[in-house]
Amino acid sequence: MHDPHRVIQHDWIDAISNIDDASIDLIYVDPPFNTGKTQSAIAGEYDDAWATTEEWLGWFRSRLERTLPKLKPTASLLIHTDWRTTHHVRLLLDELLGEDRFVNHLIWKYGLGGSSPRRFARKHDDILFYCIDPDTYHFEAPMVPATSNRMKGQVKKATDVLDIPTLNNMASERVGYPTQKPLALLQLLIGACCPPGGTVLDPCCGSGTTLVAAKNLNRHAIGFDQNPDACEITMDRLKKTPAPHDA
Question: What is residue 1's predicted lDDT score, i.e. its pLDDT?
Fold first, then answer.
């Protein structure tokens, strides 16, 4: 790979043919959630609606099946979903990989968002963590600040509940692209699940947070998106992100 950080403007199912077999250490994908509407913000938008959950799952399955051969035997998958499809995706991953390839069901806990008088407030997303080989996948437990009085000022291993704030409207890293995820979340995940110098693939890269996080951590990264606005934003963010040895 000549360029350690590549952005390819194509749909995932087409772009994956550009990737060598057994070359990816980690795939992180934050796909459309099938919210039934167009996701839009000042810097771009994308359609996020399928007629049925079955159609969405078929869309996701076809892309995942083409991607699995691109993963190394030591690789892992992090699939970012929410309450709409998490249970369907977990059954799909069990089918394609095997139930013994399941590692964690991570909860990304955040505070923003509305509430309803008819249900508990929805304040988390789900990230399904699977591996290719249970005996060889890479994992380095991330350390987070301890919250108990007994361990005040110390750090501890992160649990499967990731308490990381989502981006508010005034956040300096916000670029105006819909559903942008915080760098802190992606840096924690990549640092834990991709070896130093390894390659991360984000096939729905949106505003490019995964690629920026990978560059910050001295990992290679490849991003796909069919939206030209997303690709432009991602490439601009990468240009503005110094390599670790230059920082």
Answer: 45
Integer angstrom CA distances of residue 84 from 36, 52, 111, 127? 11, 11, 19, 13
Q: Does residue 2 surpass a pLDDT of 70?
A: no
Domains in the chain (CATH in brackets) are 5-241 (3.40.50.150)
Q: Per-residue b/e over 211-227, b at no fewer than 16 CB within 10 Å?
A: bbbbbbbebbbbbbbbb
What pLDDT, on the 0 to 100 scale, is given for residue 243? 84
247 has pLDDT over 70: no
- Report which of residues 68 and 244 the model is more confident about: 68
User: What Cα–Cα distance (Å) separates residue 35 from each residue in 48, 59, 87?
Assistant: 6, 15, 16
Instruction: Please give the average per-residue pLDDT across 141-170, as a whole number.
Output: 93
Q: What type of residue is 196?
A: P
Q: Which amino acid is at 181?
A: K
- Burial degree of 230 (CB within 10 A; 0-12, 13-18, 19+): buried
Tokens 């995964």 -> residue:
210
Residues 127-166, buried b or exposed e (16+ Cβ, 10 A)?
A: bbbbbbeeeebbeeebeeeeeeeeeeeeeeebeeebebeb
The confidence score (pLDDT) of residue 36 equals 94
Contact (CB, 8 A) for 178 and 40: yes
User: 15 exposed, middle or buried (CB, 10 Å; 0-12, 13-18, 19+)?
Assistant: buried
